[in-house]
Amino acid sequence: MILKKSIIFSIFSVATISSAQADQWYTGSLVSPSGTTRKNILNVEPYFSYSQPMGYFDARGGARPAAHPMQRMFANSTLWKYGILPDLSIQVHTVVDYGWKNGKGHSHGPKVGDIPVDLIYRFLRPDPKRYIPALNLFVGMIFPTGDYNKLGDSQDGVGSGAYVFRFAITEQSTYTLPGNHELRLRVWNWFRRAVTSAKLVDTTSYGTAHGFQGRGQPGMSGQTGFSLEYALSQKWVLAMDLARDWSNGSKVRGYDANGHYKNTTGSAGSDWQIAPAFEYNWNAHWGVIIGSSFYFAGHNKSIQASPQFAVNAIF
Q1: For the domain bounded by 2-314, which CATH number is listed?
Q2: pTM for this prediction
Q3: Would you call 46 helix, strand, or coil by DSSP?
Q4: What residues does each domain of the chain span?
Q5: What is the C-alpha separation between 239 and 130, in angstroms, rounded?
Q6: Do the Cβ atoms of 158 and 77 come closer than 8 Å?
Q7: Pair 134, 35: CB distance under 8 Å
Q8: Are 25 and 239 in contact (CB under 8 A)?
């Protein structure tokens, strides 16, 4: 919070808000959620990423080397956003994963994960002259479309089997720095909570084995962060995200293959990630962003590097 306030103070001390940002082109940073899109406009942004394990953070926050075999994954994550009204948009987020561990199995082909669907309402329109940013409210549900139950291989488990409510508040403002360079700031806070539990049978994404029968529910989770996008020119933009993720452990209860009753809650975890990237925009409707997320602090979480790129298209 102190860091966030310092950055915002520095921006206001050296910059003035631009009255019109039509001349600057953006794709958006790697991690930050964007706000509403214009009425009758479709925004499509597919991401492609690879997750490389580097180690893990223990319960005290100490960094440990990665244990073999290591979990690796390719993922395609696509945002589909459509403007219903000037201040109201709908967003669907589709995810396709392919994971594997050396000698420990792999996904039986690309697997479609759970699908979030959100309504985005802009409840405060920006007023550059009065230093008022745009504020958006996200309200949605994650639908349990991914495989999680009766798995042929644990690598096929890409879903939770539960409906998860989620909401977020986001802020976006843009400033003009000396030399006529634009700087866009985003701040956001996500919260997610499961509203149903999942029936678990045999091998599941909750870590159960063959013969298990019971129920499971993912723990509450969330993310807080901010991003900066600095325009080198109309087409080229440097981007950076800083975010903290947190999650409570999943709950599992039921009977294993030997008839023993189990009622467990997984360990809570958190991490900090930074995601530098650069953007190139051919025009106001087409752009690409390339960068990587790095996890540099946390506890009970894996340490990963996740190189990725995305194409942003507006129709």
Answers
A1: 2.40.160.40
A2: 0.88
A3: strand
A4: 2-314
A5: 26
A6: no
A7: yes
A8: no
